[in-house]
Amino acid sequence: HLEEDAGKSLHEDFHGQTGIDLNRAGTPLLEIVSEPDLRNAAEAVAYLKALHSLVTYLGISDGNMAEGSMRCDINLSLRPVGSDTLGTRAEIKNVNSFRFVEKAIRHEVERQADILEDGGKIVQETRLYDADLDETRPMRSKEVANDYRYFPEPDLLPVVIDEAYIEEIRASLPELPVQKRHRFIEQYGLSAYDANVMADSRELADYFEAVAGSCGDAKIAANWVQVELLGQLNKGELALADCPVPAADLGGLIARILDNSISGKIAKQVFEAMWQGEGSADEIIAARGLKQVSDSGALETMVEEVIAANAGQVEQYLAADADRRKKLIGFFVGQVMKLSKGQANPQMVNELLAKKLV
User: Fold this and answer.
1) CA end-to-end span of the chain
2) Helices 41-58 and 177-188, interaxial angle, to 10°?
3) What is the C-alpha to C-alpha distance for residues 184 and 190, in angstroms, rounded to an integer?
4) Residue range 179-194: average pLDDT?
5) Please, are residues 108 and 90 in contact by the beta-carbon 8 Å criterion?
6) d(Cα 223, Cα 244) in Å, to the nearest integer?
7) Torsion angle in degrees (nearest 10) through CA of 73, 1, 174, 170
8) Is 108 in contact with 134 (CB distance < 8 Å)?
9) Is this model's pTM higher than 0.90 or not?
10) CA 136, 140, 145 angle in degrees (round to 5)?
């Protein structure tokens, strides 16, 4: 249901007086009440995360729990195994993070279980969760519905919403998280895990699709977004909106891997430079002379030089069986890459070594 935020009383730091905070007065508030069918902390957190994803996709809220844009009241009760009768519930008010929701539920379950196992009764009350002490504490005894003294607002007329309007709104909805995940799997061939990560937020999903469209390979795009991009954002504690690398530029970098202009290892160095604002992938590759060496003549010279300088390893390789050779050839590849300062085309190096080491 829809509500309107009111003022709140402030009791701390007022030296025996009460302050009134009206900063949020009049702010629309959407309250979603679930059925009592969640069974544990993990289910409750998963449900909240799904709601968080939904409201942010729809643009209803920024979902910032630390700032109060989204918060949770936990109603929790226990009942004996096999019983259909719900126990007396306690309500934990205004929990403002997924982690605190999980911890508050676990603590409250233990508290109520201890009381019941000692033969006591649960008091219906409102409690708060103290994150510093990791415990819930009573705020006030819980009123029943009549104590709230609900009454109709005479100045607010009923709002009648017809089916045509509902269908109009439904048709205007954006693609929602579950639909987007399914599409990413079917359209791009992503794994369920990768699709889930890419569709985590509307902004990230849009960024990923822009990268995939720019480079032409959605699976590699998903890997780069998931590992390199999110890694840098987490490292710097940045939001995606603060990302210094536009999606088209990251797609351009991946395209240079796909056309063998640079290796994956060099690409990570280029990405780091892009993150520092040194330019596009092509500009950095050109300025630093990082373009991959794919000239067969130049590579053959390097391969022959490495073979000549490592006669002992060549003898070991020639005396080894097929399985052992697969491991030993990595040494020669590494030496060629070192000689080329990481710019040799690894695939061509492997092919040339296979021909020369016979």
Assistant:
1) 77
2) 80
3) 6
4) 97
5) yes
6) 18
7) 150
8) no
9) no
10) 115
Q: What pLDDT was estimated at residue 109? A: 95
Q: List the one residue out of 323, 229, 315 whose CA is nearest residue 268.
A: 229
Write the burial class of residue 139 (CB in 10 Å: 0-12 exposed, 13-18 middle, 19+ buried).
Answer: middle
Question: For residue 141, what is the enclosing H or E element?
Answer: strand 135-141
State the sign of the Cα–Cα–Cα–Cα dihedral 323, 324, 327, 328: negative
Assess contact for 299 and 269: CB atoms under 8 A.
no
> Region 29-46: what's the mean pLDDT?
93
Q: Residue 18 belongs to what H/E stretch?
A: none
Convert the pLDDT of each residue in 265-275 to its tens digit: 889 999 999 99
Q: Phi first, then psi: what are they for 110, rounded to 5°?
A: -65, -40
Question: How distant, in Å, are the alpha carbons of 78, 88, 104, 113 from that of 120?
Answer: 13, 12, 21, 10
Residue 147: which pLDDT band, with cuts at 50, 70 and 90?
low
